[in-house]
Amino acid sequence: MALLFLDTANIEEVRQAVAWGVLDGVTTNPTLMMRAGTADLKATTLEIAEIVRGPVSAEVISADAEGMIAEAREILAWSEFVNVKIPCTVEGLKAMREISRWPNGRINATLIFSPTQAYLVAKAGATYASLFVGRMDDAGLDGMEVVRQTREIFDQYGFPCKVLAASIRHTAHVVESLRAGADIITVPFAVLQQMVRSPFTDAGLERFLADWRKVAGS
Question: To bridge 143 with a disulfide, which of 31, 119, 136, 195 should be the other Cys (CB 3.0-4.6 Å)?
Answer without folding.
Answer: 136
